[in-house]
Amino acid sequence: MKQDAFSALQLRPELADNLADLGFTSMTPIQSQSLPPILQGKDVIAQGQTGSGKTAAFGLGLLNRLSVDTFHTQALVLCPTRELADQVAREIRRLARGIHNIKVLTLCGGMPFGPQIGSLEHGAHIVVGTPGRIDEHLRKGTLKVENVSMLVLDEADRMLDMGFQEVLDGIVETLPSARQNLLFSATYPPEIQAIAKRVMKSPILIQVESEHTDATIKQLLYRVAGMPVGQRSGEGETARTLAVRALIEHYRPDSMLVFCNTKVETQALADTLREVGYSAVALHGDLEQRDRDQTLVQFSNRSVSILVATDVAARGLDIDSIDLVLNYHIARDAEVHTHRVGRTGRAGGSGLAITLFEAREQHKIDKLQAFLDRTFELLGELPPPPKHSTLPPAAMTTLQIDAGKKQKVRPGDILGAITGEGGIPGDQVGKIQIFDQFAYVALRQQVAEHALRQLNANKLKGRSVRARRLSL
Question: What is the SS3 assignment for 162-230?
Fold first, then answer.
């Protein structure tokens, strides 16, 4: 019998028969690695991209353990958006077709509260919902969780991106301590490791993508002409600035990080790129804290495509899916170079890093290559860039709300205000980040004005708030 066949698992007969009827024979990598420990009742952290088959992995785990005759909530599944919660509930119902009388209920924001109370009174074996609405039901006592024996955090990284960490912690505190915990995430950043440490007991970690290695990051060199005699750095467009623009036009990255060695050149390059139409911001030590916060918010939530930074300012920056890292200057030492380059090619993806250099800096390149025991490919000359950017605008835009932690604003409040009656779909909402006095929410460009009207028309925590669109 094949090890990756569903028939190799110890599943209840009704589930196994239904899988055969559905045409499920071979397991995906995430299913074959996670299902055996899930079925043994162990806590599991599984890292896998959307479409990897994770819903069936935890869905089968929940259904196999369920006591159908006991009509109370035994499993709780938390998802970042209403759309994903609906999708997960549909898939669990499909997997459960062979088991009679199983009730799966969705509890999401943006839907009327009253009917949900009625549904809960009739009981449900599995509740699938968004953190904000689940938290609301728990606070009002309409959702009883004393018999929950399984907790699933689906797309946990996205829930943290949307600012739900405190809400998740609050939900977990209400659950029985004797339970199985399953955490599914596309990435495995430190924040996920921290929540796993708090929530889980001796979890088994499963990562179906390979971690980034040097081999997954392609490193190129691009030679630029030396600076004309008498021209100072930051004065007009230098050969390096033109090279940056030519590389942007050639590779057209959605997300790009440029490293400069000085604060002055960092600011000058970001200003130049913005003047010719690129979505670019600077990050360096001379920024006020509020400006730094806004800069990082906009880059991390994809409202800005290009971040120009110094090494010191970028310390602790943890942003996945950077398509291109560009060294405007050669790093001062090989370890700094390695740290810069490691920002791309994360979460199992491939990455690209390009270093600009002048002929007189060849000795620095030779030293770097010798230290890393690698030879970087030299990129051929590119055509000069156009006068203005030909890249499309960033996919997202950021709204700033003049209320934050001090006003007890939570992500669910913001999500409810913009996805409620007459609002926008939850899948159009990106990261929600809450600071002491301000909150920021990323939205798809095409729905931003609608969301802005919703926020300014509705109340948060019973009071009117002002929201505005952040510009570069």
Answer: CCCHHHHHHHHHHCCCCCEEEEEECCCCHHHHHHHHHHCCCCEEEECCCCCCHHHEEEEEEECCCCCCC
Task: For the chain, report the end-to-end CA distance as a whole number of angstroms.
Answer: 59
Q: Chain-centre distance of CA 331, in angstroms?
A: 28
CA distances 468 to 299, 453, 471, Å, are 17, 10, 9
In the predicted structure, residue 397 carries a pLDDT above the cut 80: yes
What is the CATH code for 214-378?
3.40.50.300
Of 452, 444, 463, 469, nearest in space to 418 by CA: 452
Q: What is the pLDDT of residues 125-163, one digit of tens each?
A: 999 999 999 999 999 999 999 999 999 999 898 888 788
The answer on pLDDT for 229 being more than 50 is no
Fold of 6-207: Rossmann fold (3.40.50)
**Where, residue-wise, is CATH 3.40.50.300 in the chain?**
6-207, 214-378
CATH number attached to the domain at 396-469: 3.30.70.330
Average pLDDT over residues 433-449: 92
- pLDDT tens for residues 87-132? 899 899 999 988 888 999 999 887 888 899 988 988 899 999 999 9
Whether the pLDDT of residue 235 is over 70: the answer is no
Return d(Cα 87, Cα 91) in angstroms, integer.
Answer: 6
Measured CA to CA, the distance from residue 158 to residue 160 in angstroms comes to 5
The answer for residues whose C-beta is within 8 angstroms of residue 449's C-beta and 6 or more apart is: none
Report the Cα 212 to chain-centroid distance in Å: 17
| 247: helix, strand or coil | helix
Residues 6+ apart with CB under 8 A from 469: 397, 398, 399, 400, 448, 452
The boundaries of every CATH 3.30.70.330 domain in the chain are 396-469
